[in-house]
């Protein structure tokens, strides 16, 4: 119970500042911002909305829980069964409880921005797990209650109590600190201590189809689906009659909300939102025709700024019910740009670029908005620049001339070359001066009617802005030339004197000058503040009073006093009011009108004030109404948020994001705070940010600062993203803060991150570099030592070389002498060899000759032997023959030949015998003769055999030398 009281106090403090200012205006339609499915890129159906302690908005969408940070929409999580989300609740620790289709649970946000869903259905007994949509989720004391028509599930201390009905439940209501449940059989029940207790005569509620219950001073107000409203007090049920019964009974009530000051917000299925006061009077009816996104309202919730969020079957709308500004909408959509407005005879007139229109202002002001629209004044269908009451006539100044308006018709009373506006000439209430496109025109009031007189001669400039001073001078401002001061002649048909003022007379520029009359003083609007004419020098100087309040930097586009001497202004893009205080002091009121920035028609800024306090602003977006009695707090604190952080390389690697299932698992994030540690390869980052302030979000400006990289904050801009590339290794803090249209600066959001050094700039790399440097120094020293050693060795080597060279020279000289001796010896040897060759050749020739003689003798003896048979002669001849054979086969000459032959032919005989030991001495001799290149005939007598015998011997030698048949034995012997 203590926790509940503390939470209630915290919530009351949290909501108190804005609830007191959330009463919706009765006049006009509040500003509405619509978000359709194409905008938030999710399902069209939305069923609930909540806001966390930071100000972030969450919606129960068909696709899951949808988050909106003022700039971006994201589905952040889904139930485990992927079903639609029907209801949401949030506790003071920002834990979101979720009711879905056939599932319920809770959601918490992780340090990396992701939202994690945990189902609680597992705590239910198996018999209670078959249920449909969880239509309501509420936090009640220390319990969380999930409601479906099949059962009520009360979650506490990780346990769930189930309450079921035999006939199914119909609806569930949390009314202040009480819980009511509508049962199809038992009627209206009240939850007490975990038990449903019927109200007295509860059966009377069984067929009512109650859709919402309000707790008011009058009692309980029950909203039924088709039968309107009922009042239940003191156990009595009565019909609560309202001005909107015809709407509520025909279009089915779907939901409701209790607004401040007892206003009842009622959502319907077919006609949008109806707002009633506590007496049942209709304050507003906001439907699709007046700006709502869709007619089927599913839920209504207010945020901390007092704005009303409307979830619908298709889309979401934000209604700024706390704003003192509202739009006077024309349901016929006839008007466009508004150049002027005026209330005359309880009618509100607006001059537009499509003609002149009127509205029954008194009826509209009393809240009768239904089917009301601006009525077109017949006779004018082009640009109407101005309207005004002159005498008893309402005159309109149009492109084609001057018209008098009566009823729904306009009558052309003077066709001119275009008419801008009219002004009564001082001291002559019957004369009307009209500024035209090419000069001035004069009208005179004759018998109550204005009659055109003449065009004023002597001035042919466009006269859109005209005022008069107390001396009767006419001041005309020409936006592109300067200021004219005119004097009429006595007949008012011509200009008698013209004085022209521009930059040469003290104005900061000749362009965009304007003139106004404030407290009977002539003032001039310039691009650098408000100027006035110095009475002595006649030069234009800054006005000291307006310089104090409006400065000298802005373009003063409009100054206008109201009936309380407050001065309304348009300075630059800002609209404001200088409030006159009783003590003579003044203060500026500007914040309520920030919404009007960029809405005026440039050059045609117009503000209409009334004695009743109504203020009208004519804009490009229609007529806007301001109620000064409605206060709004503009200094609400709010937060800036970092929506997403991602590394550009690798492509779109997210570090922090609430987007559903998008973060990679390999990014290291600190658990204590929003921060990360990144590798050097991730040194290009993209930040997305937003502000949790939902009024005119497109006008919110941002500034950012990357601490550790940038020296200061950036300039304010509308940019909601920032990218950094090639960040060096360092610890960084990214700061961002927002400034809304009311110049309130948000609390800043930060993202801390560290970029690690690349591997080649880590401490280990530097240690390695130190080691390598040491190795390098060592190598250099060693190299230098090696060079010194090498130089020393080279010196020694050179000395040794010199010594060797000297020795070589001596050796060369010695060798030359030896070579000379060798040459002599060679010459002697060659002479000896030549002599031996000659001797061998001579001996060989002599031997051949001798053997031939001996063979011839032997042949003759053979022949003699055949002819002579004498024994004595035979024996003698035989003896001679033997001697010849002995001489032919003798070794005496051969041995001498072999010795010389071996000397000349490198021991040929020995080498041959070694290689071929099967060769006989005769074979060896034949090979020697072949070596000497003797032919067969020359060899036969040397061997003492016939030619045929030489051939046979050659054949045998070939076989012993193992020569093939085609080999030349002579060539082999010569090359051996």
From TrEMBL:
Domain spans labelled HTH luxR-type: 916-973
Keyword entries, A-Z: Coiled coil, Membrane, Phosphoprotein, Signal, Transmembrane, Transmembrane helix
Signal peptide: 1-22
InterPro entries, A to Z: Ig-like_fold (IPR013783), Quinoprotein_ADH-like_sf (IPR011047), Sig_transdc_resp-reg_C-effctor (IPR016032), Tscrpt_reg_LuxR_C (IPR000792), WD40/YVTN_repeat-like_dom_sf (IPR015943), WH-like_DNA-bd_sf (IPR036388), Y_Y_Y (IPR011123)
Gene Ontology BP term (one): regulation of DNA-templated transcription
PANTHER family, per the entry: HYBRID SIGNAL TRANSDUCTION HISTIDINE KINASE C, TWO-COMPONENT HISTIDINE KINASE
Record keyword Signal present: yes
One of the record's GO molecular function terms: DNA binding
Coiled coil: 800-827
UniProt cross-references to Pfam families, sorted A to Z: Y_Y_Y
Transmembrane segments: 763-781
Name this polypeptide is given: ABC transporter substrate-binding protein
Keyword Cell membrane found: no
């Amino acid at each position: 119970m203590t926790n509940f009281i503390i939470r209630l106090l915290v919530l009351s403090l949290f909501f108190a500042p804005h609830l007191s200012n959330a009463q919706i205006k009765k006049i006009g339609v509040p500003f509405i911002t619509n978000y359709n499915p194409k905008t938030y890129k999710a399902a069209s159906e939305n069923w609930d909305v909540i806001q966390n302690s930071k100000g972030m908005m969450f919606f129960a969408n068909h696709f899951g829980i949808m988050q909106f940070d003022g700039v971006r929409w994201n589905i952040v999580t889904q139930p485990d069964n992927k079903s639609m989300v029907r209801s949401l609740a949030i506790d003071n620790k920002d834990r979101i409880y979720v009711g879905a289709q056939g599932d319920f649970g809770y959601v918490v946000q992780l340090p990396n921005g992701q939202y994690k869903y945990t189902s609680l259905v597992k705590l239910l007994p198996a018999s209670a797990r078959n249920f449909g949509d969880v239509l309501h989720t509420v936090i009640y004391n220390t319990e969380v209650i999930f409601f479906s028509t099949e059962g009520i599930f009360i979650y506490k201390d990780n346990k769930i109590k189930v309450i079921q009905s035999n006939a199914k439940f119909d609806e569930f209501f949390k009314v202040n600190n009480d819980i009511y449940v509508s049962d199809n059989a038992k009627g209206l029940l009240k939850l007490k201590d975990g038990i449903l207790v019927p109200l007295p005569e509860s059966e009377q509620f069984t067929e009512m189809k109650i859709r919402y219950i309000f707790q008011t001073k009058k009692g309980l107000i029950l909203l039924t689906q088709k039968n309107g409203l009922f009042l239940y007090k003191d156990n009595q049920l009565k019909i609560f009659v309202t001005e909107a019964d015809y709407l509520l009974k025909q279009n089915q009530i779907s939901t409701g909300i209790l607004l401040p000051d007892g206003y009842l917000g009622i959502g319907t299925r077919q006609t949008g939102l109806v707002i009633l006061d506590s007496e049942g009077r209709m304050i507003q009816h906001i439907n699709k025709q007046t700006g709502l996104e869709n007619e089927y309202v599913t839920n209504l919730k207010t945020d901390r700024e007092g704005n009303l969020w409307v979830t619908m079957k298709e889309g979401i709308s934000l209604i700024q019910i706390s704003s003192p500004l509202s739009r006077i909408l024309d349901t016929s959509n006839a008007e466009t740009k508004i150049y002027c407005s005026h209330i005359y005879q309880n009618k509100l007139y607006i001059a537009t670029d499509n003609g002149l229109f009127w509205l029954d202002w008194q009826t509209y002001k009393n809240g009768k908005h239904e089917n009301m629209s601006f009525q077109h004044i017949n006779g004018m269908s082009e640009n109407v620049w101005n309207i005004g009451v002159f005498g008893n006539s309402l005159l309109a100044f149009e492109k084609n001339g001057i018209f008098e308006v009566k009823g729904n018709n306009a009558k052309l009373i003077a066709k001119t070359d275009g008419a801008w506006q009219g002004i009564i000439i001082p001291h002559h209430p019957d004369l009307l001066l009209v500024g035209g496109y090419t000069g001035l025109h004069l009208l005179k009031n004759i018998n109550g009617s204005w009659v055109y007189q003449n065009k004023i001669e002597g001035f042919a400039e466009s006269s859109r802005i005209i005022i008069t001073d107390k001396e009767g001078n006419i001041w005309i401002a020409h936006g592109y030339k300067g200021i004219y001061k005119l004097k009429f002649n006595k007949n008012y048909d011509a200009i008698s004197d013209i004085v022209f003022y521009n930059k040469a007379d003290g104005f900061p520029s000749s362009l965009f000058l304007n003139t106004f009359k404030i407290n009977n003083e002539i003032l001039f609007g310039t691009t650098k503040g408000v100027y006035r004419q110095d009475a002595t020098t006649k030069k234009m100087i800054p006005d000291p009073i307006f310089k104090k309040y409006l400065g000298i930097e802005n373009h003063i586009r409009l100054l206008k006093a109201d009936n309380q001497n407050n001065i309304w202004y348009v300075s630059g893009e800002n609209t404001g009011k200088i409030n006159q205080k009783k003590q003579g002091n003044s203060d500026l009121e500007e914040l309520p009108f920030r919404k009007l920035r960029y809405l005026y028609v440039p050059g045609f800024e117009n503000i209409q004030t009334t004695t009743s306090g109504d203020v009208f602003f004519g804009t490009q977006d229609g007529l806007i109404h301001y109620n000064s009695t409605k206060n709004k707090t503009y200094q609400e604190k709010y937060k800036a948020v970092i929506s997403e952080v991602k590394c550009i390389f690798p492509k779109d690697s997210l570090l922090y994001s609430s987007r559903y299932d998008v973060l990679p698992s390999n990014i290291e994030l600190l658990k204590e705070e929003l921060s990360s540690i990144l590798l050097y390869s991730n040194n290009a980052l993209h930040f997305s940010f937003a502000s949790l302030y939902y009024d005119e979000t497109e006008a919110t400006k941002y500034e950012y600062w990357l601490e550790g990289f940038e020296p200061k904050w950036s300039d304010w801009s509308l940019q909601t993203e920032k990218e950094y590339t090639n960040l060096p290794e360092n610890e960084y803090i990214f700061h961002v803060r927002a400034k809304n249209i009311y110049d309130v600066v948000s609390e800043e959001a930060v993202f801390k991150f560290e970029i690690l050094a690349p591997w080649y700039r880590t401490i280990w790399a530097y240690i390695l570099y130190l080691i390598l440097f040491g190795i390098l120094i060592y190598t250099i020293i060693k190299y230098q030592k090696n060079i010194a050693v090498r130089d020393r060795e080279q010196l020694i080597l050179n000395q040794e070389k010199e010594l060797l060279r000297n020795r070589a020279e001596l050796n060369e000289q010695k060798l030359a002498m030896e070579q000379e001796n060798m040459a002599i010896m060679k010459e002697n040897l060659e002479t000896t060899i030549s002599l031996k060759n000659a001797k061998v050749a001579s001996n060989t020739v002599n031997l051949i000759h001798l053997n031939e003689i001996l063979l011839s003798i032997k042949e003759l003896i053979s022949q003699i032997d055949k002819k002579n048979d004498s024994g004595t002669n035979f024996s003698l001849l035989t003896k001679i023959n033997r001697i010849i054979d002995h001489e032919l086969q003798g070794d005496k000459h051969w041995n001498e030949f072999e010795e010389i032959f071996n000397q000349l032919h490198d021991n040929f005989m020995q080498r041959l015998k070694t290689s071929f030991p099967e060769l006989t001495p005769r074979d060896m001799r034949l090979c020697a003769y072949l070596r000497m290149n003797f032919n067969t005939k020359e060899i036969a007598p040397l061997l003492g055999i016939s030619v045929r015998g030489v051939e046979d011997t050659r054949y045998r030698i070939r076989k012993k030398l193992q020569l093939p048949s085609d080999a030349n034995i002579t060539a082999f012997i010569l090359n051996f």
